[in-house]
Design brief:
2 domains; 80% helix
């Protein structure tokens, strides 16, 4: 977990799971928008340890692909396809990895 999230959770007295998830996801997305992709990827990994959804998997896979983490992107996209077989974005990410 990032130092910022540690501070947020301590300050808020370990917020509910829903608010915790929302805060973590907002942080990951914010880091990605700010161009801090490696930190964002770590934040997504932290989220995935507790929460796994198609949305999170797709965002993380796309970020991993952007970072050049071919193995991570393929693995994450494959997991997304396990949850939603034939999902077009997951398939697109996995296909992009296979082309390289």
């Amino acid at each position: 977990m990032t130092p910022f999230l540690d501070w947020v959770f301590r300050r808020n007295g370990a917020a509910t799971d829903s608010r915790s998830f929302d805060a973590q996801l907002a942080l990951a997305r914010s880091l990605a928008r700010e161009g801090r992709e490696h930190e964002a990827s770590r934040a997504y990994s932290d989220i995935r340890r507790k929460y796994e959804s198609l949305e999170i998997l797709l965002e993380h896979a796309a970020l991993q692909l952007e970072l050049g983490d071919q193995f991570g992107a393929a693995s994450t996209a494959t997991r997304a396809l396990e949850l939603s077989p034939g999902h077009p974005k997951a398939q697109q990410i996995r296909d992009a990895v296979l082309r390289h």
